[in-house]
Amino acid sequence: MPKQRIIACLLLREEWVVQSIGFERYLPVGRPEVAVRFLDEWGVDEIILLDISAGREGRSIRPETIARVSGVAHVPLAAGGGIRSVDDVRRLIAAGADKIAVNTVLHDDPGAVREIAAHFGDQCVIASIDARRTGDGGWQVVTEGGRRATNIAPADLARRAMEELDAGEILINSIDVDGRGSGYDLALVERVAAAVHAPVIALGGAGTPAHIRAVLSLPGVAAAAVANMLHYTEHSVAVAKSYLCQRAIDLRLDSAADYRHGPLPDDGRLAKRNEAALRELYFQHIPRETISIRDLL
Amino acid sequence: MSLDVAIVDYGMGNLGSVRNALAFVGLDARICGEPDGLTRADALVLPGVGAFGEAMQQLSGRRLISELERQVLKHGKPLLGICLGMQLLAERSYEHGTHRGLGWLPGEVLRLPDEEVIVPHVGWSEIIVARPHPLFEGIERDACFYFDHGYHLVTGPEHVAATVELGGPRIAAVARANILACQFHPEKSQRSGLKLLRNFLRMCIENRRAAA
Fold it and tell me: What is the ipTM of this complex?
């Protein structure tokens, strides 16, 4: 079994990374290249770039955007936003994307999804599902960036995406908790994960490492995707991973920023170490290997 | 000295990522889709993302196969196959039908058994190095690499350089003289992957010095 993953989800609006609140309000963060570079340094496992203005503008996420960030990422990149055809995907892969995420096209043109999977392999396709609570204990899938409601249950769509449309992974996103930072919609994620025998990525609501721990503890959850939470603190990914590893969640750790030996409370705010520990740090030199063949050429 | 490394372009594959990763480690590789361009390379990288059948069609359509065979099998130039690039080395694959591969390694490519594991195998997994090999020098025992595949190569144990635990040991990397390949993506495996690429390049430099 592969390790569970922490995936950074960068939402793009007019080529800027934004924070999203309930799919309605957006706060600007900065340039994607900068965010990608930091996340890579802090040991994130994968990055998904979702262009949330693309679909509405009748286009797909721009290959140039992917090309700009792919140079600075040494982790897999997924691209999503308005993807509708094999040609869209070909351009994105050529620009540096490793996988693509499809959402609205799952409904509007499922045949295109099958074609994409046939050409590029199912491991390249993430079926991205946005869901909203219906108020009677269930959920409904919503498309077009939250603007078009359907009467489809997310678990059913996830099953269909895997079994009939040849997707490789499911990304399940909750509109209700989006941007609130008070935890994932665990019941939704659990329902979808139970419906498929496939990697399920949860998105929406993460605010603290404790929330990530809760979602990664659900059976069948392969990855926790986080968006807004990443942009608030230095080393956010590294702190979250250190917290999770302290609590026996099996993750990959590979960052110079290693907080496992210090106190890490649930809210992810680094507690001050005692004076003796700090004095020791003051004189510590942590060498970092330079991976290069330049001296041999 | 300089080292000429050609990344084989047959229309399928994340060429840019591979080139960027090699550049990070200090080498400017060429992306090359023409048989002539492969001839002067000191070493070759064969990436691959997509379906086996289409990949073989593209390689043959672009007349790359005989030149690859000449450079790798006859002249013994180092080759690194990545992901689909490793699977293509097999005699055949059963991905969407039955397709012939390059046949440089005995064996075949099969779907991962989804009764035993979650397919596709996506994410970071630890690999088990079968025996010491320069390709894995300096890489920690519990190092993780990024995998993303639904099919896997099956070949003789004498060629297996590393395995990954997936409902039983599956091949993560092969090494047969100058032919090296990995199922995972070293260009997407952060520091572990960059170290592997550095090690491959070191092997290429030594190979060139020995040949001179």
Answer: 0.92
